[in-house]
Write the structure tokens for this entry.
Amino acid sequence: MGPGTDLGIHLKGISKMQKSPRNSRYCIALLLVAAGSALGAIANAADAPPPQIPTCDKKIGTLAVAEPQNQWWTALNLESPAALIKVFVSESKCFTLVDRGKGLQAAQAERALAASGEERQGSNIGKGQMKAADYVLVPDIANQNRNSGGTNIGGMLGGLLPHGVGAVVGGVSMKSKTADVVLTLTDVRSTEQVALEQGHAKKTDIGWMGGGGGGSFFGGFAGGGASSYANTEIGQVVTMAYLDAYTKLVGDLKNAAPDAKAENVQQSVTMSKPGKMYAESNLKSQVVRNLDPGMMLYPTGDKMGVWWKVTDELGNVGWVVSTNFQLAH
């Protein structure tokens, strides 16, 4: 059939619809129902309360937040996600937050002034004062197949980053306005991966912004250096994805709270002078072995005055006078 035949069929179809008022009314009714449902969904989303950052009654530990190696956020004109996570951590009161970024750099400059004698006497700035982090939290975006459709950050960065890197940073889709992120929590002492949580969010998850809840939720983001996550739609979606992952992380840690200090072995020590390992915590007991300067020992945690119970690298167990060794560095 030719173009003329197709046009004729099309015109006949229109003529039939015009001759069928019942069908026309039915179609209009369906459209009205669909439009009403869509408007209702939008209204419900706008009326929904803003999400809540999870909170804790007591601290889980001391936390440092580190940036991931792939700076995917620069392609979106966003700040580092570390700034965003610090806002969550501060609001949740689940961790004591220590600064290992710009704050540490400024503190080191101040300590350098104190060490050079430039600061006033009695400033009380010196070694042994910094609080150790129990955990390091790294925010990143989840891996996504670059060929799965849509424009994702992996594809955008593919030509900017070294070969192959773009394939593993594709967790944010510009086309569908979705974000898939991951939070990794690592024990500083043992380097054990304590938790790995994934978070997901899409554009419809920020419908509550239309109800005026955005100001109350994003109010503290500017002060925390994360204003771009509040000011852009894709930034808001990424925020919700990270909040999803952080909520899961806090929930898991509450159910089985780790104790980083208790669950790790004591810091090792080295002999600073010649000594002996004894079977008991007294000089009259049997000598297990002689100890030379520089030998590495591992405290068990048992102590009797100046005596520490230790093991050596060969598995020998005994007691050593603590004035004969120093902490290994």
In short: The longest strand covers residues 178-187.
